[in-house]
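A sample copied in:

***
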Amino acid sequence: MSQPSHQTSDVRGRAHDVFRGTIFQAVLLGLISFTQPGIWTAMNNLGAGGQAEPYIINAVNVITFVIMIVLSPVASMVGNLIGMKWIVVIGTIGYVPYSAALYCNSMWGTQWFLIFGAVTCGISASALWPGEAAIAVGYPEVARRGTCISIWLALGKLGSIIATAIQLALNKDSNTTGAISSSTYLVLVVIQCLGLPLSLLLSPPGKLVRRDGRKPVFANAERSLKSQLRGFLAQFRRREVLLLIPAFITAQWGVTYQGNYMAAYFTVRARTLSGFIIAVVGAISNVLSGWWLDTRHLKRTTQARWSWYFLLALFTLVWIWNLVVQERWAKHSPGEIDWSSASYGEGLAIFVLYRYVICFSCRPTTPFLPASLFFFFLFFFFSR
C-alpha cells in the first residue's frame, strides 16, 4: 500500500523541481514578456501603433519613455527591498490600459485616454523591464544562462508573432494606407490580461531549484532606499557605464523613424505582413544569439571581437542603404506600397535587417559597444 504513495510523492517532488527550476521560470518570464512588451512591440511594428497618423503616437511614446527614464532606477531599488517578482507583477498592470486606449482612439478619437494609457504603460514598463531582466540573468545557473535568456526573449518574440498573425488575418483586405481594424486591438487586450496571473506564478529566489544547488543572490534587502540611491548614482562615475550610454541610445535611436516610415509609405496589410516577418526574424535571432553566447568553442574575447565586427558592418550597411532609399523616395514618391508593389521587397528588407540588428545588439550580454558608438555618431550627423 505504501508503494503508490511513495510514487505519488516522487511525482510531486519532480513536478516541484520542474516548477521551481530555472528553465520553467525562464518559460514563465517569456510568457509574461509575450503578453506585455511582446504585444506592445507587435503594435509598434505596424508603425504608429497601428493608427493612421504617427503624430499622437510619437507624443505618447515620449511620455512613456520619459517616465521609464525616471522610474526604472526607482523600480530596481524598490525591487531590492520587496523582491523582483513583485516588481514584475506591478509591470504587468499598465500595458492593458494603453492597448485599450489605442482601441478607443481608433473608434472615438479619445486622445486623453491615450495619454493616460501612455502614463500607465510607462509606469509598468519601468518596473517590468528591469525586473524581468534581473530575473532572466540572475536566476539561471551560469552554464544555462544564455539558454534561459534566449528562451525568455524568444517567447517574448512569439507574442509578437501571434499578435501580428492575428493582425494580418484581420487586416488582409486593407490595401490602402490608414489605421488597422479596431477589432484587432480587442484581441490583443485579451491576451495582455493574461500577464498578471502568469507573473504571480514566478518563484521567489529562496524557493528556486538550481542544478548547482545554489540560490541566486540579489542586492542586500536590508539596505535603505537612500543608500541604494547613493549606490546607483555612484555607477555613473564608472568609466564603462559612461561609455555605454551612447550605445544604449544607439540601440533605440532609429525605432521612431522606422515606425513613421511604415505608416507613411505602406498599406495596412503590408504593415501587418512586415510586422509578422519581423517578429519571426526576431525570434530566430534571439535563439541564435543564445546559442552564440553559450558556445564553448571560442574564447570570450574572440566572441566579443567577432560580435563587434558583425554589428559594425551590418549596422553601417543597413543605415546607408536606408538613407539611399529614403532620398530616392523623397524625390520620386513610390505611392502607397502594398505587398504586391515592386518597391515592397526593398522597403521590407531594410526594415527587417534594421530590426534584426537591434534584436542582436540589445541582448543583455552581447558585447556591441564599438559598433554602437560608431553608429551613434553616424545617426547623429545624417539625421539632422
